[in-house]
Amino acid sequence: MPDRIAEHYERNAHAFDEARRQNFVEKGWLDRFLLGVPKGGNVLDLGCGAGEPIARYLIDRERQLTGVDVSERMIALARTRFARHHWIRADMRSLELETRFHGVIAWDSLFHLRPEEQAALLIKAADWLEPGGALLFNSGSALDESIGCQFGEELYHASLAPADYRALFAEHGLIEMAFAPHDEAAGGRAIWLARKRG
């Protein structure tokens, strides 16, 4: 099921983009994230979609964006909207980057990966971060795999247990700054904010 995610978002790119532009529940978390990202700093957005609303919000606040998404249609929209920033069509699971970033975001994207794939990507994210850099992502609130529904289609979600995320943080130089297991203001999401040890 996780391997069908690309097809799902490619089919529904415009419907997803329209829905996302009407739904900006993550603003408060982005503001907290930006406290650890200097103006002019580089941000990696994993699962960036078409760049709305997250990339636009960060770009408007003078950050440089590198967005990664598996959907060519999504990336094409982002390139059209924000041509001065860097957009990569890729599966985040196989992404290799030499660049270091002041911040990494995986909002509503990491949880489409299997638990072991999430762990592997978080290890990469820790390596991509500059010392002191910020990491923002959401997960489930417990170890789980489930099938949800979006645009009338089944959609895979998974999560590690909070203790597993914390163990990854400890092993790979990340410090937990905040964890909300069920943030009502953000649609009930479980949200993590961490930073790389300086």
Which helices and strands occur, and which strands form pairs?
Layout: H1 5-11, H2 13-21, H3 27-34, E1 42-46, H4 54-60, E2 64-69, H5 72-81, E3 86-89, E4 101-106, H6 115-128, E5 129-139, E6 144-150, E7 153-159, H7 162-171, E8 174-183, E9 189-196
Parallel strand pairs: 1-2, 1-4, 2-3, 4-5
Antiparallel strand pairs: 5-9, 6-7, 8-9
What does this structure look like?
With 198 residues, the protein is an alpha/beta fold. The protein has a single domain (2-196), classed as Vaccinia Virus protein VP39 (Rossmann fold), CATH 3.40.50. It has helices at 5-11, 13-21, 27-34, 54-60, 72-81, 115-128, 162-171; strands spanning 42-46, 64-69, 86-89, 101-106, 129-139, 144-150, 153-159, 174-183, 189-196. Strands 3-2-1-4-5-9-8 form a seven-stranded mixed β-sheet, sandwiched between helices. α5 (72-81) links the parallel β2 (64-69) and β3. The chain is globular.
Write a compact overview of the structure shown.
GO terms for molecular function: polyprenyldihydroxybenzoate methyltransferase activity. Keywords: Methyltransferase, Transferase. The chain has 198 residues and is an alpha/beta fold.
List keywords for this structure.
198 residues; alpha/beta; Rossmann fold; seven-stranded mixed sheet; two-stranded antiparallel ribbon; 32% strand; methyltransferase; transferase; Methyltransf_25
